[in-house]
Structures are given as C-alpha cells and as structure tokens.
Amino acid sequence: MELFNFSKKESRLYMSFMYVTFVSLLVGGLMGLLQTLVRSGKYTLPFNIDYYTILTTHGVVLGLVLTTFFIIGFQFSLMGKTVGISDKQIMWGWVSFWVMLVGTVLAAWMILTGEASVLYTFYTPLRAHPIFYIGLALVIIGSWIAAIVNFRQLYVWKKAHKGEKSPLLAFMVTINMVMWVVASLGVAYSVVVLILPWSLGYVATVNVLLTRTLFWYFGHPLVYFWLLPAYMAWYAIIPKIIGGKLFSDSLARLSFILLLMFSIPVGFHHQLTEPGIDPTWKFIQVVLTFMVVIPTLMTAFSIFATFETTGRNKGYKSLFGWFRHLPWKDVRFLAPFIGMVAFIPGGAGGIINASHQVNALVHNTIWVTGHFHLTIATTVILTYFGIAYWLIPHLTGRRLTPKLNKLGIIQTIIWTVGMTIMSTSMHIQGLLGGPRRSNFSEYAGGDQVATWISYQISQAVGGTILFVGIVLMVYIFIQLAFFAPRGYEEYPVAEEDMDAEKTPKILENWYLWIGITIALILFAYTIPMIDIIKHSPPGSIPFDWPIGRS
Amino acid sequence: MHLHKYEKVWLVFGLGSLALFLIIIGFAAFWKGTHPQSHIETIDPQNVEANEAFQPENLGLTEVAEGKYVVNMVASAFNYDFGKEEDGSATKTIRVPKGSTVLFQITSKDVVHGFQVAGTNVNMMVEPGHISRFEAVMKNNGEFTVVCNEYCGIGHHLMFGTVEVY
Amino acid sequence: MASAKQTKEDANLKGTLIMVMILGVIILVFWFGIYGLFLSR
C-alpha cells in the first residue's frame, strides 16, 4: 500500500482545520460548563447574559463547527495520505476552509449579540437575524467544496490506478461526503429558499412543518457524519496502533455502504410526536432506522475480532488474554476504546429513542441530551481526541512524548468520570420527565421538580469535571502543535493481510449504491412530503420577540 | 464475501432482537392503536377560535362521560391557557380522578411548543397550524408537572402547569 | 489460497462472540426495561 508524505503546504491546510476545532472545543465547552452551573440553581450568569444565548452557542459551536471542521480537516488528511492531493486541490481546500470560517464567524456574531437565540435547530417561526442563516448556508457551501475536492482526489487516483480497488480510507471518506452532500441539500434548501427570504421579509409566512422535516432529513445523517470518521479510525487505524491488520476490507466497505443507504431515510424518528405526519410513515421510517443498526452490529463484531486476532497472533492463547494485553497505556488506543464502550449504552439508548410510541417516554426530555452526550460527546469526541494525539504531531513535525501520552490518559479518565456522572444523571432525570433545553426553573414546585433539581446538581458536578478535561485537552493540543520536541510521529494506517480475501468489485459500484440511497430516500419521503405540502395549514408569520429581539 | 461463523451467529441474534422490538411496537401501534400522536388536523394559528374546541369558554377540563374527560388548551409564548376557574382566575391545575381517560387537545397561537405531562406518556409537539391530540388513561396517582419541552423563547422555562390525579 | 482461506475460516473468535453477546444482552435488557416503564405509565 502506497502512502503519501505530506508537504509543508498540505500540513498547513490540515492544521488550520484543527486550530478551529480546538478553539471551538474551548469556547463550546465553557458554554456547556455555564449551562450545567446555571441549571444547578446555585449560579446566575453575569452581565445579563441569557441562558439561551449560551445554549445556542454550545450547540452550534460544538455540534456544527467543531465537528465539521475536524471531520473535513481529518478527511482531507486521509485523502492526502492515501490518494494524494494536487496543488490546485490544496488551493480549493483553502477556499472551503475560508468559506466555512466566514460562515462560522457570521453566525457566531449573531448568536453572541443575542440576535439568534434559536438553538442549533433554528426551528421556525422563531426568527433569527438573516445574517445567522447566511452564515449557516456558507458553512454548508464550504463543506460542499471540500466534498467536491475529495471526490476529485479519488477520481484522479482511480484514473492513474486502473482496475485497482481504491484505498479503504479514501473509499470511506467518499461515502461520508456523499452522504453529507445528499443530506445537507435538504437543510440548504430549507435555509436558502424557505427561511432566508422569510427572515428578510420578502415572504410573509413559512411552512413550519416543512422546515422541520427538511431539518431532520438532514439532522439524522448529520449524526452519522460525525460518527463515520470515528468508524474510519476504528476500522482502519486502530488495528495498526495495536499492531494488527485489517479484519476484513470487504466487510468494512459493506458496513459503510449500509450506513450510506440507511442514514438518511430515517429523519421521522426525530419527529415521532409531531401532530402533522402520518403515523404509518413514521413507523416505516422507524423500521428503516432499525436497519441502520445493522452496520453498527457488524462494526462491533469487527472491532472485537480485530482485537482478538491481533492478540492471538501475538501468542495470547487464553479466552481473554488478547483483551488483557491490549495497549491500555497508549492513549491513541485508550481514548477511542472508551469511546467504543460508551457506544454500547449510547446505541442501546438510540434504539429506545427510535421505538415509535415509546419515544413519548423520552422525547425532549433531558434523557436525549444524556444520550447524545454519550454518542457524540464521548464515542465520537474521544475517538477524535485519539486521532488528534498522532495527527497533530504528524502535521507539525513533532512527537507525542511519553509525558503527553500520560496526560492524554489522565484526560481520558477525567472525561470518562465526568461524562459518566453527567450523562447518567441526565438519563435518569429524563425518565422522570425532566425537560431538556431549559433554563433553571422550579416550575410549580413539588416533589417531582425537587428530584429533577437534585439530578441537575450532579450534572453540574459532571460538567465541571468535563470542563477540566477540556482545558487539559486544549493544553495537550497546544503542546503538540507548538512545543513538543521535533521528530516524526507515525500516521497509522492498517494494512490488509497478505492472504486476505479479495474485495468484490461490486462494493465500488458508486452508481449502484448512490442509486439505492436515492431510491430509499424517495420511498421514505415522497408521499409524506406530498401530504405535508397538500395538508399544510396557513403559514406562520415570523416571531422575533420570544427570543428577545426587538 | 466471507462471514465468520460467529459473525453469522451474532448477526442472527442482533437482527432477531431488532425484529422482536419492531414486532412488539408494531403490534402495539397497529393493533392496539398506541401510535404516537398524529392527526394531521390543521388550524389557522392566527384564528384558533375558529375551532370550537379552542374558544375561550371551552378551554380547560370537561367531563364528557363517566370517567371520560377532555382538556382543551391553547399554548402561546410563554403560557398554557387551561381556561378559567369559577372566580375568574386562570386555571393552573387540572384535576382528574385516577383511572380516568383524558383526551388532551392543544394547539399553538405562535411558535412551536411542547406539551408533556412529566411522568406520564403524554408528550406531544405543539406546532402552529396543527392540532395535537393524545388520549391517555391516568393510571397513577400524583401531581405531575406539565412542562413545555420544546424551546419557545427566553421565557420557555416559565411555561408550565400541573395535572393532579387523585 | 485454499489453505489461507482455511485459516481464516477457523480463526478462533470465541472471545469476540462472548463480547458481542454480552453487548446484545445489554441492548435487550435496556430495551425491555424501558418498555416496561412505558407500559406502567
């Protein structure tokens, strides 16, 4: 397998995405800390800052900015490493970076001045300042530019390597970007065509349910867009770190194809308690949602099998000897491993959330917040951290020293402890009916509310521990970027076994897989969309005052 | 493509579990009628009184038959209108006997809201232009907080009520 | 080639099977626990 060395120019591009990532981590993390403190009831925000301003900042900065920048930077590096990048493509990489950054700054400006306290879901008919929507649109457009560059990179490589199968990681990046483009078309349409003209006053009313449906058409693949880079690392990087080989190239590709097909036609499972969608179509999308569990079941097996095969090849013969001898002291392994473990309750919770009528038990309760703090804020983010420990020094020509490795392990433990406390208490409070997305409130008082508040206090404890973890992570990042000793840090890419089974050609038939993906989307959405438009009520005029705009 | 025999065992087990979940919730939904709320009934958000249920005098709790109740409500930022008490003050608590069947009907005059009787399965999105409706048997005694669980603006957390089952 | 395939076929993955089965049981227990709570309300 041929791996490309990064030029200085290339490394600079990839690093620029990482700077934004870790600035976002600090800013967004601070907002998270403040939220948990406010919700404990023991602390009020200074300078008349509104709770929902920091909540919007937290969601947008961590959910949209940190993730998108990290993913696109990391994926560029994967493409550069496995299929190479031309000067022209680097130039377009910079265009995508700047378009996204300008969009981010515009959106952040509006949020921080209180003109866009609409949370990261920006549900109409709450109306933010038009510049907020323009900013969001730019972030998406910038990400499309990156996608086109990635597609071009693979295309150029394929032309030069006729008849060869594409490198696994390049294949995976392409899958993720295809999914992202197909999904974000929905939200882009909603933002640019439906919401922006309405926010400017050119159109009087907006179809609320339509904008929500388009958001969730995008919103669920969004979480898979976050998750797939973690899966890339689990399938194709972790094996190298633990001294093994790929378990199966074909199965890895198959699971990514299934993720592409079933990530999108499932948005209704976020809208199960909506009044305006036919319950039969909700149920159909519930079934499709359950289909997307299958590639994850395959992934779980692959990961354990990689560990076991590697351990057994090293000579550990007992039933769990391979497990005991995993490189627990290597943070490049430990952090993603904890992420995998968190995905067990995270995934189980996800199946519960999607279970049609059972969703009423947890919908919009803080259980959901607890759920995605396991999935995105533990599984995904700890894997991203695990990647950063080698990616950053690889890009800056430095080394992950034993001391930094140790700090990383401490960071991972802090995160695990903080998140266990915070997420568990969120799950329990949610089952007791405590709502998410809410400032501190005693409501009508009574025992029920008192119980909620006691859990909010433990969330503040967990949140504080997590913030310590964030500060430590940012410190490690700064060390790796600027101060660690110069040297060479490996970019770990796992190889196939010499005698590995040949990967079937059909797995690279893009027309087929994208065709099925589109067919599934049309199946799941056409009729309910026609229903939504045909049965639409009078549209909604914009509302500014509820979010404190005058 | 080759699957290890244990992977086949695992996938059969996993797919079987998923199928089992789907059969249970599908049976409950289609045969027992416990779908999540969806009535696809629309209304003009700027004129909710056009619908009889949401005229001011019809808001709040009504006993329609022995042990059967209807509660009509209008949500707006940042308040639930549960109708008025006999003395003219706004109703904040809805009291129903244990075991009664209650149909909750609600719509929004402005933005998106939530309506959850926390601690029960009554949990609905409330959207302008749509009527949300859910019938529940109040099985357990207690005071349940009604919370708006979808962000509706800076007073979102001040939007609440109480359902008391006695 | 045939012999190589043979070794793959027989790869000892007993530990893996136990691990994923534990995971599967966790999913079942979680789901039925929550479903029970749903029915009780």
TrEMBL record, chain A:
Coiled coil: none annotated. Keywords: Electron transport, Heme, Iron, Membrane, Metal-binding, Respiratory chain, Transmembrane, Transmembrane helix, Transport. It comes from the Bacteria. The keyword DNA damage does not apply. It is found in: Membrane. It is a multi-pass membrane protein. Residues 1-482 form the Cytochrome oxidase subunit I profile domain. GO terms for biological process: aerobic respiration. GO terms for cellular component: membrane. The keyword Acetylation does not apply. Its main location: membrane. GO terms for molecular function: cytochrome-c oxidase activity; heme binding. This is Cytochrome c oxidase subunit 1. It comes from Sporosarcina newyorkensis.
TrEMBL record, chain B:
It holds the Pfam family COX2. Its main location: other. It catalyses: 4 Fe(II)-[cytochrome c] + O2 + 8 H(+)(in) = 4 Fe(III)-[cytochrome c] + 2 H2O + 4 H(+)(out). GO terms for molecular function: copper ion binding; cytochrome-c oxidase activity; oxidoreductase activity. One of its GO terms (cellular component) is cell envelope. Residues 17-166 form the Cytochrome oxidase subunit II copper A binding domain. SUPFAM superfamilies: Cupredoxins. The chain crosses the membrane at residues 9-31. InterPro entries: Ba3_CcO_II_C, CcO_II-like_C, Copper_CuA, Cupredoxin, NosZ/Cyto_c_oxidase_sub2. It is found in: Cell envelope. Keywords: Copper, Membrane, Metal-binding, Oxidoreductase, Transmembrane, Transmembrane helix. Subunits I and II form the functional core of the enzyme complex. Electrons originating in cytochrome c are transferred via heme a and Cu(A) to the binuclear center formed by heme a3 and Cu(B). PANTHER family: CYTOCHROME C OXIDASE SUBUNIT II (PTHR42838), NITROUS-OXIDE REDUCTASE (PTHR42838:SF2). This is Cytochrome aa3 subunit 2. The lineage of its organism: Bacteria, Bacillati, Bacillota, Bacilli, Bacillales.
